[in-house]
Amino acid sequence: MPANSLDTARLLPELRTRTRRITLRACPGCARKITPGAPCPNCGPAPGYDRNHRNARAETLATEFVCFLCSKPGTPADPLVAGHVTPRSAGGRNERRNYRAVHRSCNASHGNRVMREAA
Predict the structure, then answer these.
(1) Which of 38, 46, 53 lies closest to 93 in space, CA to CA?
(2) Neighbours of 93 (CB within 10 A)
(3) 70-119: per-residue pLDDT in tens?
(4) How far is it, in rounded angstroms, from Cα 104 to Cα 75?
(5) How far is CA 88 from CA 11, 24, 29, 41, 93, in A?
């Protein structure tokens, strides 16, 4: 075997472990196909996860200890998360007064309805 030829039998398993199938997603702002979790080069990071969102979420979870929808405390299996009272899809803003602590399951089950309607 010549010294400069590639041993594909030896390299093939290594190449297989390095490749991974990635499903691209559409950017909500411009519909450009991008890698999941990466910001869009045209639009920047996804709207809604800026400093105002993080601060309001942290303050909500620091001050509220029971679910707004079912009035039960959070558990390790179903922790409290900060949910929008008026969903962003209905014009809700990332302001502290629009957040309430809710269980992750309660937040998922109420969908994009206003929390007062979902309760």
Answers:
(1) 53
(2) 15
(3) 999 999 999 999 999 988 878 888 889 999 999 999 988 888 888 875 55
(4) 10
(5) 50, 24, 15, 23, 6
Residue 21 half-sphere exposure, CB side, CA atoms within 13 Å?
1
DSSP, residue by residue, the chain: --TTS--HHHHHHHHHHH------EE-TTT--EE-TTSPBTTTBSPTT-SHHHHHHHHHHHHH--B-TTT--B--SSS-EEEEESS-GGGT--SSGGGEEEEEHHHHHHHTTS-HHHH-
pTM over 0.70: no
Q: Which two tokens stand for residue 63?
A: 């001050």
Q: What's the token pair of residue 115?
A: 């929390």
What does residue 8 show for φ and ψ, rounded to 5 degrees? Answer: -65, -30
CB atoms within 10 A of CB 57: 18
Which tokens go with 24? 């691209």
How far, in Å, CA of 86 to CA of 50, rounded? 18
